[in-house]
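User: What would this chain look like folded?
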Amino acid sequence: MSQSGLEERVERLERIIEISRSLNSTLQLPPLLEQIIEAGRELTDSAASSIMLVDRKTGELHFEAATGTRRVEVRSVVVPMEGSIAGWVVQNNQPVIILDAQQDSRLYRQVDETVDYYTQSLIAVPLAVKGKVIGVLEALNKAEGGLFSEDDVKILSILADQAAVAIENAILFEQSDLVAEIVHEIRTPLTSIVGYAEMLRRPGLAEEMRGAFLLTIRQEAMRLGRMVNDFLELARLESGRTFLNREQVRVEQIVAEVLEVLRLQAEEKQIALQADIPAPLPPLSADAARLKQALINLTANALKYSWPGDRVTVTGRADGRAVTVGVVDTGPGIPPEAQERLFQKFYRVPASEGEAVGSGLGLAICRQIVEAHGGTIWVESEVGQGSTFYFTLPLSE
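Assistant: Here's the prediction, encoded as structure tokens.
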């Protein structure tokens, strides 16, 4: 090996040590996966990189992260174990280097077709923990038309060994963290149900008190049911197992349906509910049901925290690259320190405690839905001046 080649190998190994430290300090799965694929692309000097993980329930391979502009679309693809390069890597627990992918019978062409990509060459290495393969790390198309080498395979395999442990740790951390949060959240309604059920057993209880206790038990049971549904929905969205049913969608139609659903709630609270979409919006390739769910969550939240006489307006604008939807209210506003945490699981604005009850997952679910579409979501608010929740939806290419 030449002196320059040796120096390059040492430099790559030093970089892998640096990356490994960063991976081991990241316990949130989405940013961890992004770090891994960017490192895979960098270390192999490739055009793209991706991670597929094995679903522990179904045994299927799912894309969890990918570089490139079509990273959102690729997450809807399920890769079969039979008839795919990644499936072969999982079943054999061995890396593979393919210099002419189009001539390999194992190439699963649906991936290229879905994201409009041409895979010329690739490296696929197993992500394994204690001998058990949990997924596959791929690097695709050497930059500037070059050829992948055995050194590329070795360096990607070293990265995969470090990445697999980090991924397993992040999954375990999220699972234990979520279980602890769920137990904490369901304790309050369960305590109420048990407490009021015990009081119903008291002899000589007045009929009107009995009716009030039964109503409370029913309300707390329904609240508990909504919490469980929200827990399951967020878990599905975060896992990437809930794939988008994309179709041509008109945002104006979704807004109209949301306003109709919430009209009665707004009238009961004496809050004006309206839309402000001055010009026709271009159609989107999106999941209509999911977008409606997110917009209902945002609009219902605005109504929940507003007072009689306030106004809630749903806006829509397009700029040639994306459609931006806003939910504007004239309510009390949100303190700056609370705005930073609004989209975290189970977070509620401190001043709202006792005023509105929910699972604390609504905004986290909205964020997952919007980001699954390749968009972003944020809030702008001033105390006493109302709040606006915005989200963008990219236009089809």
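The CA atoms of residues 199 and 205 lie 8 Å apart. If you want, I can go into more detail on any region.
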